[in-house]
Amino acid sequence: MNSQTLSSFFLLFNIKFLILLQVLPSGSSNPEEFYKTCGNKFSCGSITNIGYPFRGIYDPLYCGYPGLVLNCRQDEITTIQIINTTYRVLGIYETTQTMRIVREDVMRATCPQDIVNTTLDYSLFDYSATNTNLTFLYGCPTLNIPGLSLVCNNGYNGVYVLSGTQGPGKCNASVVVPVLVSTGNGYGAGGSVNSTALDQVLQQGFEIRWKMDGGKGCSDCIESMGRCGFNFATNRTACFCPDQPYISATCSGANGARSPSGALFFLF
Ligand SMILES: *[C@@H]1O[C@H](CO)[C@@H](O)[C@H](O)[C@H]1NC(C)=O
Ligand SMILES: *[C@@H]1O[C@H](CO)[C@@H](O)[C@H](O)[C@H]1NC(C)=O
Ligand SMILES: *[C@@H]1O[C@H](CO)[C@@H](O)[C@H](O)[C@H]1NC(C)=O
Ligand SMILES: *[C@@H]1O[C@H](CO)[C@@H](O)[C@H](O)[C@H]1NC(C)=O
Ligand SMILES: *[C@@H]1O[C@H](CO)[C@@H](O)[C@H](O)[C@H]1NC(C)=O
Ligand SMILES: *[C@@H]1O[C@H](CO)[C@@H](O)[C@H](O)[C@H]1NC(C)=O
């Protein structure tokens, strides 16, 4: 081996090693470990004991459905990232598959600081029927619409708020933010708004529903002493078992009855 092949050997070795390092924090790829490493429930402040399809940010990737990742700040603030926007999570209601969230930039200041619409990843979430939209208009010429008042003057040239989903019209930009119907009622045309009341409405957040279930398959799994997780080989929710087979539809624990269709389910 001459020195050049030797150095390229080490280069290759280093690259492999780096790749290995990047893969490791997301957890082992050995199915035997799946059950053991997915034992955590997510708890943070008032949100406690949240399991699959969610995972905590430090749990292995396969412990949760892709995209349903919860983070905990200062031991009390739960956040989730949806299409590049950070939301604070106010509640997670597993029985109805809903959660209440609020844009992080709205928690910091009454009017959204990031000029982006609230956009969900519709492959993961739906709006629930309890919401209505407010539209913030930025960079408006002086508007002379009765009842429409300036709600913020923080860095932008005046921000107005309207109910509903509106385009920018004569203003420079519009930003749509959902709020709960029960709190957003007062924002009909002509309803005058003061920013204290607006703060309260916005900080209640809005509700979304996650589409993929922990569901029946998952409760069967848990009943059979398994833990739900995500099988990246099949792109589906799977049941991780403490003993072989480590990935199945249900485990052999509890009632001992492993469904024979289980293996087939994961093949197709
Ligand atoms: C999210 O942010 C990243 C980095 O800023 C950007 O490359 C990507 O296009 C953004 N994705 C969306 C959906 O806006
Ligand atoms: C709110 O706006 C979004 C798009 O920004 C839309 O998909 C949704 O249906 C609207 N909700 C209501 C209640 O109008
Ligand atoms: C709207 O944006 C344009 C271009 O950036 C700027 O010149 C104008 O002053 C803005 N209008 C208001 C009312 O802020
Ligand atoms: C937000 O959505 C409205 C209505 O769909 C659209 O007219 C506006 O341009 C969007 N704003 C931004 C910042 O993309
Ligand atoms: C703002 O509105 C709330 C609720 O309608 C009211 O209680 C409060 O007194 C108002 N504040 C000001 C400064 O008008
Ligand atoms: C799983 O889904 C991802 C993203 O949708 C896709 O890139 C990947 O090829 C899929 N894998 C399998 C095994 O279907």
TrEMBL record:
<protein>
    <recommendedName>
        <fullName>non-specific serine/threonine protein kinase</fullName>
        <ecNumber>2.7.11.1</ecNumber>
    </recommendedName>
</protein>
<keyword id="KW-0325">Glycoprotein</keyword>
<feature type="domain" description="Wall-associated receptor kinase galacturonan-binding">
    <location>
        <begin position="38"/>
        <end position="103"/>
    </location>
</feature>
<feature type="domain" description="Wall-associated receptor kinase C-terminal">
    <location>
        <begin position="166"/>
        <end position="244"/>
    </location>
</feature>
<dbReference type="GO" id="GO:0004674">
    <property type="term" value="F:protein serine/threonine kinase activity"/>
</dbReference>
<keyword id="KW-0418">Kinase</keyword>
<dbReference type="GO" id="GO:0016020">
    <property type="term" value="C:membrane"/>
</dbReference>
<feature type="signal peptide">
    <location>
        <begin position="1"/>
        <end position="29"/>
    </location>
</feature>
<keyword id="KW-0808">Transferase</keyword>
<dbReference type="InterPro" id="IPR032872">
    <property type="entry name" value="WAK_assoc_C"/>
</dbReference>
<dbReference type="InterPro" id="IPR025287">
    <property type="entry name" value="WAK_GUB"/>
</dbReference>
<dbReference type="Pfam" id="PF14380">
    <property type="entry name" value="WAK_assoc"/>
</dbReference>
<keyword id="KW-0732">Signal</keyword>
<dbReference type="Pfam" id="PF13947">
    <property type="entry name" value="GUB_WAK_bind"/>
</dbReference>
